[in-house]
Amino acid sequence: MKRISGMLCLGCLVVGSLGTAAAQEQSMAPPKVLTVTREFVKPGKGGAMHDKAESAFVQSFARIKYPTHYLAMNSLSGKPRVLFFTPYDSFAAWEKDANTINKNAALSGSLDRAGVADGDLLDSVDMAAWTYNEEYSLRPSVDIAHMRYFEISVYHVKPGHHKDWDDAIKMVLAAEQKLPDNHWACYEAAYGVPEGTYAFITARKSADEIDKNFAQQKDFVSAMGEEGMKKLDELAAAAIESSESNLFMFNPKMSYVADDWVKADPDFWKPKAAPAAMPKKPTDKTGTGQ
User: Fold this and answer.
1) What whole-number distance in Å separates Cα of residue 71 and Cα of residue 149?
2) What CATH number is attached to the domain comprising 90?
């Protein structure tokens, strides 16, 4: 079951629970377990073609009002791909969800048929599970229903350098506490990703927030101080094996979200279909009015 299973700069990312949201703006805490499926689409097979294939999964779940929801997003950087985030309170909850689907023959069959059509569009797929790291997160609760982007950065920590990494993160958190607008949630790799991998996620309402974040880099440097930045650079060089940041845009057509999300922002999650064009009245070329 592909939806029940992925990859996510310091100071950049947040994910909230996908199952509940108030009709008005309301912050939501990050889920304890996050499963992520990555679909890499073949060249020329994305866009509306992939949207249509994925809508079959959404319809299968919506038809029976399935309680587990997921959020889809398209990459705006890096290799073209789509991420599917599914939240759980625990690994046991993930297991229960998978068993429920397997026992529902009608749903499983519908998902299998949708998977055949979707598979023809894909170059590859992978899956992973992540656990929420509260200690490394900053103001993680946000109103996800009104967000539009995730900035996602992945850090691979060198074996034997967790102490350097931990010291660096704590320095960053201390400085970022002085910048009230910044927030992120941290996830640590559990399955399907190399050990020592951390993902930092920040939700954005608009690209304007990204511009403001880059403009505030000088404030972070000021909060750290000259000696602090020197120490942070040393710790990062010692601890980080590799890092990469990417930007993703939410895709409502591929997402299966809770009704409360739709009520909170219906124009985005369930936009009204454009009215059908009225047929043109035939031109009377005979002069008879017929």
Assistant:
1) 11
2) 3.30.70.100
CA distance 109 to 101: 10
Number of compact structural domains in the chain:
1
Distance CA 85, CA 91 (A): 15
In this structure, is residue 154 part of a structural domain? yes
Residue 289 lies in a domain: no
- Give the residue numbers spanning the domain of 152: 2-267
Residue-wise pLDDT for 111-167, tens only, equals 999 999 999 999 999 999 999 999 999 998 889 999 999 999 999 999 999 999 999
Is 163 a member of any domain? yes
The residue among 96, 94, 113, 93 whose CA lies nearest residue 105 is: 113
Question: Could you say which DSSP state residue 124 is in?
Answer: E
| Residue 159 backbone phi and psi in degrees, to 5 | -55, 135
Rounded to two decimals, the pTM is 0.85
